[in-house]
Amino acid sequence: MSEQSVKTTQNNSVGIVSPKTQHFDQPLTLASGRVLPQYDIVYETYGELNADKSNAILICHALSGHHHAAGFYQGDKKPGWWDHYIGPGKPIDSRQFYIVSINNLGGCHGSTGPTSINPDTGKAWQSDFPHMRCRDWVNSQRELMKLLGITQWAAIIGGSLGGMQAMRWALEYPDELRHCIVIASATKLTAQNIAFNEVARQAISSDPDFHNGFYLDHNTSPKNGLRLARMVGHITYLSEDGMGQKFGRELKAGSFMLGADDDIEFEVESYLRYQGDMFSEAFDANTYILMTKALDYFDLAREYGDDTVAAFSQAKCSFFVVSFTSDWRFSPQRSREIVDALVAAKKPVSYAEIEADFGHDAFLIPNERYENVFHAYMQRVAESC
Hints:
By secondary structure, the protein is an alpha/beta fold. It is about 35% helix and about 15% strand. An eight-stranded mixed β-sheet has the order 1-4-6-5-9-10-11-12, with helices on both faces. The protein has a two-stranded antiparallel sheet with strand order 2-3. It has a two-stranded antiparallel ribbon with strand order 7-8. Helix 9 (about 330-345) links the parallel strand 11 and strand 12.
């Protein structure tokens, strides 16, 4: 196997994986007009690139995602965030495809972002890091694509914010992908979604340890604000039925006795606090703000007179769009809008609406019908390699 491949184990996993870092010395001009003089991209690959380099798949991650999509790091028991769907025999089959998963610029898992050193100052960028847009991620992904010797992706796949990146690819570089797979996404956010993101940002910026985004200079971090932001976000990613099934009104300590002095803590409260605590230890607050703003500003048809049909008329690839019935942040209505525009633009499109109980998070969770339709479409992709 090449150094960009990983070992396959017997349990349908890509096995032990290692991230790679690619440094780029050439400047990258961003949508904001600012320039990154140099940057790093951290990524992982699974599978082998075939002789004519026609079997490459790009995975685009969502808001809090990163490059570690599948397999295990040495010593870890928890696999990558999409391990159920990437690997031998899985929908994104590492025996058929060469899969590239990237940590986007502005992230906090190794790619250049707010915690990286600004070469002009010798200090961490922090809140001085440039605003990012989906097209910036697409352009940086394309630079890595060229370095890997890939001229056309067999497919670009993304859920949520990742789906927005996949659609942007189809418009910006229509000759460089054959299939665009958009899962639980939208052509732009609703006002309600923007409002939730603003509440999360306010939770972070109102933390006394935020220091206008320069908290590293004070050897601190706005963990309480980030914890609250994650708790609010996590509630919106789940559905009422899903939360009811998972927690109901159960108490952490079982039934309580009248008159007990201890605080009553419901299981759902304990779960949210745990999720918030874990996230605030692992994620950077400036990155969270950057990613939510990129979500807010994404509008696929902005440059096309707010005409989504005109926007999709630029595309040359086939599309597969997936939504989930209980997802109220990126509802099936938003996916049907994508499909209707693609049909009006006379583009080939397949659509699946999956019955699922776990809200927006459903695209990450095992689901037999989702897995089957995803696998069936990816076999079409494989036939084009």
